[in-house]
Amino acid sequence: MKNKLTLILILISLLLSILVSCEIDGEGLLDKKESGDLTEEVIFSNSQLTKEFLTKVYFEIPYGYDHPNQQYWIDGITDDGIHRPLNAWSKDIYLGSFGPTNIPAKIQRWQKCYSAIRACNKFMDKIDNVPLDPEGYISTVEVRTRLKYEARLLRALFYAELLKWYGGVPIITKVLDVNSPELYTPRANLQEMKDFIISELDAASSGLPDEYADFDKPRVNKSVAEVIKARVLLQLASPLFNSDKDAFGNATELCPWSWGNYQEERWKEAADAAKKFIDSGKHALHFSTGSRLSNNERSRITTLASRDSYGFYEYDIVYNNPQLIMWYPKKSSATNETTKFCVPHTMQKEATQSGATLPSMNFVGAFSTKNGIKIYETNEDGSYKLDNDGQFIITQRAMDDGFNPQDPYIDRDNRFYHSIYYNGIIHNKVEYEIWRSPIDGTYGREYNPTFNHTGFFLRRHNDPFKIYPNSNRTSTIQGTSTNTFPLFHYGEILLIYAEAQNEYLPDGADRSQVITVLNQFRERADMPDVATTFSRNGWNTNSRKDMREFIRNERRIELAFELHRPHDVRRWKIGEATQRLIFGQDIVKDKTTNTYTYSIEMIMRRSFELKHYLWPIPHAEISNNPNMVQNPGWEAM
Asked: Which candidate, 201, 199, 226, 198, places its Cα nearest to that of 211?
């Protein structure tokens, strides 16, 4: 039965690739219906095949890896990390050497999203006539109707995804052929995008349950619709769109990339949408002390994090916890495959499987001391201040708190230890050695001089207690885990509310509701509460600016490597300041004294121009549709 189902999914995948292969210009539209022995008529006359057709659309939802390899985290194209080796697809993004004619395949969201949208349109067009199967999944009219609402919500999800990358796009709600006049649909402006996506989410939500049971749990539901709505409203309220100017500073009217004005009410809409979800009480943050672990498992890694903070890293590992709303399974069964691409090659037999995405010092610097003291001075845009030697400037309060740059991993925010593997940490009796010795030209075992280095490896979204290196380093990593990739979770909703409400409130106004929400994260991380943290740093809890800096930092830590950072730095319009210089930790070992010297080094210069705030529309779309306009800065390419 399992082999038969696998074969069916493969055949449906082949047919779906034909059904959705067209782009908005109509090229490649369905004219050959056969895929093996399956045809469009066969699929939509069989309830099981119809259900699997929609299931395949779910696997088109973008998530944090370079699907389908699951090797590189997409967040590695931001200041939070780097990919290695540099001949990876991300190199074109680092250098800015991409454009409308050569968009890296891993982030060709235009083609992928419109393919999925076409599949949704096809499904909604056919589902009403699919015969019921009393013994199958589509056994009743109610199930068949619900699946139609699922497809409608998924279509809205893909349009919301396009909005983040491109701004307004053509809205297509039916399957087109080569003669369809809709092939020449112009891009929608932001008002039209908002009206369409929100109305579609509301309509789809009306026909979906709050949640599902058993194997249907990862399907879209009312909660997913509400999170997407809040996410879209936050995007539309943010500085990139909520302005009378484009990214280049040119005055604009309402168009696909600008509202043409600034309105505080847009922040309120986002805050209200998030608050409604919070008040529903349907979800909560996941708290844990690691009780799921045996004493043997807990001893596998030497961590300085408090037991009370374990919920921070567990929410995408433990199934059926209250924080997860929708997730993308990393694999259909327990595996350690994803972890192989995070830990060093020296800790596993397969030397080709090694840390492909490395966290940067830019990201590590976001973690405060355990007392909540900000360690490094930053500018208002979030970029680090540097001294004459190129080192991050340490705040006076951090020095007073005892922070030592030559022992930089002691007494840090508990979430640091759940996010980063660093020099000296011990995992199943194996010590990470990420140092170099210039005197004799030797290196620590985890320092490979032929690759890029940041001084760190990524622990975020991995389960080091269930998956661990062999203690003698002679075989592949041990153990498996059923962790997922979180697509939507309650933590994001809390952060949407905090950000939107802070921006809506006048400077100096009471922010107690914002503080209450943020304190949930502080409690879960076993960190000082907001009032204490602000007091210790000399900040004002009623200051919009101070609270903005704090919220953005909390969002960076809580949502790290979940495909938010690439969009956050754009919607906040801080790309030029934060995305051009990437830093790492250089660790030099003195073998005579067995001591280390830690310094910060600039390891990469990247390109980020004003045009990079939005991605280019593919050249073929501009050429084939005379009504299609390119995003600012990409017109002449």
From this structure: 226
Helix, coil or strand: residue 577: helix
Residue 159 sits at the vertex; the CA angle it makes with 253 and 99, to the nearest 5 degrees, is: 70
- Asked whether the beta carbons of 604 and 393 are under 8 A apart, the reply is no
Closest by CA to 583, choosing from 329, 384, 331, is 384
Burial class (CB in 10 A: 0-12, 13-18, 19+), 594: exposed
Going by pLDDT thresholds of 50, 70 and 90, the confidence category of residue 320 is: confident
pLDDT class for 105, splitting at 50, 70, 90? confident
Q: How far is it, in rounded angstroms, from Cα 507 to Cα 547?
A: 10
288 with 318: CB under 8 angstroms?
yes
pLDDT band at residue 36 under the 50/70/90 scheme: very low
pLDDT at 236 (0 to 100): 98
Collect all residues with Cβ–Cβ distance below 8 Å to 76 and sequence separation of at least 6: 82, 83, 90, 357, 358
Q: pLDDT tens across 254-274, in order?
A: 999 999 999 999 999 999 999
Residues 326, 21, 486: CA angle, nearest 5 degrees: 15
What H or E segment, with its residue span, contains residue 462? none
Name the strands in the sheet holding 581-590, side by side, starting at the edge strand that comes first in the sequence.
442-443, 436-437, 581-590, 595-605
What 3 state SS string does 132-199 have? CCCCCCCCCHHHHHHHHHHHHHHHHHHHHHHHHHHCCCCCCCCCCCCCCHHHHCCCCCHHHHHHHHHH
What tokens appear for 264 in the block? Answer: 């505080």
What global pTM score does this model have?
Answer: 0.93
Contact call for residues 191 and 254 (beta carbons, < 8 A): yes
Give residue-wise pLDDT tens across range 447-491. 988 888 999 999 988 888 877 777 766 666 777 776 778 999 999
The string of pLDDT tens digits covering residues 151-163 is 999 999 999 999 9
Retrieve residue 231's tokens: 């996410």
Q: Which of 531, 194, 484 is nearest to 333 (CA)?
A: 484
Looking from the CA of 452 toward its CB, the CA atoms found within 13 Å total 25
Please check whether residue 405 is in contact with residue 394, taking contact to mean a CB–CB distance below 8 angstroms.
yes
Distances (CA, A) of 190 to 115, 253, 261, 263: 22, 11, 12, 13
Q: Which residues, in sequence order, are CB contacts of 64 under 8 Å at separation 6+?
A: 73, 74, 75, 461, 485, 561, 562, 563
Question: What is the number of alpha carbons within 13 Å of residue 202 lying toward its C-beta?
Answer: 7
Name the residue with tokens 């990469």: 604
Q: What whole-number distance in Å separates Cα of residue 556 and Cα of residue 174?
A: 38
Q: Is the pLDDT of residue 14 over 80?
A: no
